[in-house]
Amino acid sequence: MDENLFADPPPVTVENEGGTSPVLLVCEHASRFIPVRYQGLGLAEPDLSRHIAWDIGAAELARALSRRLDATLVLCGYSRLLVDCNRPLSSPTLMPAMSETTPVPGNAAIDAAERERRIAGIFRPFQDTVAAQLDAHAARGVRSTVVGVHSFTPVFKGVARPWHAGVLYGRAAAFGERLVAALGGPSETIAANEPYVVDAEDYTVPVHGDARGLDAVLLEIRNDLLGEDARIAAWADRLADALARSLG
């Protein structure tokens, strides 16, 4: 087993550590990076540039939010096709053999050793880092609010999605509803628990938020609205303002 397989880039990066905001930003799908030895998991470059490999625009948006809020940000350094850091270990989509409608040949027959290599090299360091940042907040007397930053596709399996953004939450309904209201506008559709819902297939909100008794949400921005720096900046401004007004 190559102990350094997931060392370059590191599996997890913390930016603005020690930021003054109670918000901890988490970007589980920040990167599409797959080491050369995996040969793209059998996928061609066009597929590795799609949403199946990462959340397009999410890392840039998360960094912009971190700057505006002075919030600590935790980013994953590897593609979710290797291991999805927003899935529990029991999930069949943790290392998906099929992503949306695209087969992933390199995940079709993962043995126990390879599964553990990815979990030990990427998943555990990422989750341990998020937990450590929350512990550091608590040690300073700060009650954290966990905010995952994601993007979604305008069309999923042939079905158009009308929402511009969504706020997903589990137990933090009051915070989630305040945030939806703060983001609302006359020309855009901001929805609660769209285009997904937080359920047993999620990790960040249930484990790092709900299980600790902390407010936790996932922000979902449609990725065609994040294609330019100016649009990312505009969403970051809007989200930062809404978050500031919604914190309990």
Task: Give a description of the structure.
- It comes from Salinarimonas ramus.
- InterPro entries: N-FG_amidohydro, UCP029730.
- This is N-formylglutamate amidohydrolase.
- This protein has 248 residues and is an alpha/beta fold.
- It has one domain (12-246): Aminopeptidase.
- It contains six helices and eleven strands.
- The chain has helices at residues 45-48, 58-69, 112-139, 173-183, 204-209, 229-246, and strands at residues 12-15, 23-27, 72-76, 98-99, 102-103, 145-152, 155-156, 159-160, 165-169, 190-192, 215-222.
- It has a seven-stranded mixed sheet with strand order 1-3-2-6-11-9-10, sandwiched between helices. Strands 4-5 form a two-stranded antiparallel sheet.
- A hairpin with a 2-residue loop joins strand 4 and strand 5.
- Helix 4 crosses helix 6 (229-246).
- The mean pLDDT is 95.
